[in-house]
Recover the amino acids of this structure.
């Protein structure tokens, strides 16, 4: 391992005990990742701030007790608490107290209290080619793919260690050669109607993660004006089902003006042509139960990753002032809820009975009501994690399907696209 | 059989081998160590004390948190043997060590070599990465 003089100072305790401990972990992790040097980084996003148990709290408190402080701008991913709305998170008192201790420790370390899995829509936007250390799989894939910043996939705790030292292992997606597309995915034979449908993107992402994990895919044949929210949904689903850290959309994402450039100077040798059947099968897998139309649903949950202002606007538009019959959870960050407070959209959500969840989400902390056996979502990531994390069955649909089902209290899905 | 040492250590216990990729976050209960991933052939099985062999890992960067919590709760596998190195799991072990908790060996062994071990067989893992049937 090549360590610079400055890094050695930190490793030997010249910047305090917390930075020393953090540097030790960064260097050991670099070895695990096969790196031979570290890379200076411009910012960090911390996923380790979600309460999973005692160990994570003790580690953050140890760093804070050693007077650690982040050396670069650092945002926080979701925690286990909704710090703005009381009574939404039903965590037992001991767990709540531990999550609160964790919050205090990370804030004491100098992290911005952003509490969102969509930091890239909350003003934290590293530039093309900039090295950063981001945690949380959807944030990682978005930073790499859509912003063209460079972050490897780190485990929880390495992220805060990178933030304390302003260094990351120079491995994985920090390196040019790891970013080149190795596989072309041709979507041009799918119907235009499908490619224009919002729900297509999480389904494509779920397929991508399941079928191409280990490759860097360059997707061709998608509209060149796909909005960020669709890329966000694609990446989040791909990262959930297959640990995808980077994808390219030719003509849309910054490192893929064309297929040859995306491939690092030559087009990928392998190509998969997407068919309707592949997408139908990926779509079916996003529901854990084969449910008939009209079956009663117990709740709707959207917002993984956290909803943007534009997505909230589409929700308000779909609701059109109507009241939902089943609990409807819309998860977002405080960067969005603060805007909604002032402009009447919060009132519109209240009228429709939508519960805004901030700083956290329904698959990382207990929010869903007891007895909710079937939850509907338009999020590929919620669809993937609902059953294992909450025990509830899940059925996937479009945003419009979710809203109509919530209003009717029973499953309404427009399945024509997938039939 | 000798595996590549990622984090050295010794262990002894029954093999739990999975050909399905597993994500610790969303796939293992951090309090009990039970596999909760419905797609796992070992769903419901607890990891504690086992020599866990996985052809591949999958999914979340929070898997290091889950492994740390398993170590803190005494519910961790005795050793983890992966087809490909997963630094995310390794970090959970590094942090446990910084906090003064026991470490566990993390090794790399290609999945076709893993296939020589059957679930339930008791094996030992030694400091030099040797995995041997008892």
């Amino acid at each position: 391992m090549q360590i610079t003089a400055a890094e050695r100072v930190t490793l030997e305790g010249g910047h305090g005990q917390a930075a020393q401990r953090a540097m030790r972990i960064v260097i050991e992790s670099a070895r695990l990742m096969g790196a031979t040097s570290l890379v200076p980084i411009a910012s960090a996003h911390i996923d380790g701030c979600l309460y999973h148990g005692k160990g994570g709290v003790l580690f953050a408190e140890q760093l804070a007790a050693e007077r650690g402080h982040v050396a670069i701008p650092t945002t926080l991913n979701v925690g286990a608490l909704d710090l703005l709305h009381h009574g939404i998170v039903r965590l037992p008192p001991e767990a709540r107290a531990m999550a609160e201790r964790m919050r205090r420790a990370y804030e004491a370390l100098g992290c911005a209290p952003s509490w969102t899995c969509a930091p890239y829509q909350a003003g934290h936007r590293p530039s093309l080619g900039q090295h950063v250390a981001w945690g949380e799989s959807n944030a990682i894939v978005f930073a790499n793919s859509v912003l063209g910043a460079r972050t490897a996939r780190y485990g929880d705790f390495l992220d805060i260690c990178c933030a304390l030292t302003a260094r990351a292992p120079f491995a994985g997606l920090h390196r040019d050669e790891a970013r080149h597309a190795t596989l072309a995915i041709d979507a041009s034979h799918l119907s235009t109607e499908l490619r224009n449908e919002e729900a297509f993107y999480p389904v494509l992402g779920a397929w991508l993660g399941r079928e191409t994990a280990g490759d860097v895919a360059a997707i061709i044949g998608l509209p060149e004006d796909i909005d960020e929210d669709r890329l966000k949904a694609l990446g989040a689903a791909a990262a959930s089902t297959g640990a995808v850290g980077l994808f390219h959309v030719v003509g849309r994402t910054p490192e893929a003006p064309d297929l040859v450039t995306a491939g690092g100077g030559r087009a990928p040798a392998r190509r998969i042509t997407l068919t309707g059947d592949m997408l139908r099968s990926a779509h079916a897998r996003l529901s854990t139960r084969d449910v008939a139309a009209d079956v009663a649903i117990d709740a709707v949950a959207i917002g993984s990753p956290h909803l943007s202002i534009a997505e909230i606007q589409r929700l308000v538009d779909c609701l059109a002032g109507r009241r939902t019959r089943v609990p409807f959870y819309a998860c977002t960050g405080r960067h969005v809820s603060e805007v909604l407070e002032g402009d009447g959209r919060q009132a519109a959500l209240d009228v429709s009975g939508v519960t805004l969840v901030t700083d956290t989400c329904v698959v990382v902390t207990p929010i869903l009501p007891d007895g909710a056996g079937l939850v509907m979502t338009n999020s590929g990531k919620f669809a993937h994690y609902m059953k294992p994390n909450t025990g509830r069955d899940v059925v996937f649909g479009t945003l419009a399907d979710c809203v109509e089902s919530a209003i009717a209290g029973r499953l309404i899905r427009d399945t024509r696209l997938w039939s | 059989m000798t595996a590549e040492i990622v984090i050295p250590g010794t262990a002894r216990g029954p093999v739990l081998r999975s050909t399905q990729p597993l994500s610790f976050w969303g796939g293992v209960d951090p309090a009990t160590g039970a596999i909760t991933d419905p797609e796992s052939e070992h769903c419901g099985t607890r990891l504690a004390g086992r020599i866990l062999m996985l052809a591949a890992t999958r999914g979340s960067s929070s898997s290091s948190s889950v492994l740390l919590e398993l170590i803190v709760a005494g519910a961790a596998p005795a050793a983890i043997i992966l087809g490909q190195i997963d630094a995310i799991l390794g970090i959970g072990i590094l942090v446990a060590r910084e906090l003064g908790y026991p470490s566990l060996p993390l090794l790399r062994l290609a999945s076709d070599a893993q296939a020589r071990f059957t679930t339930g067989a008791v094996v030992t893992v030694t400091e030099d990465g040797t995995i041997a049937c008892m």
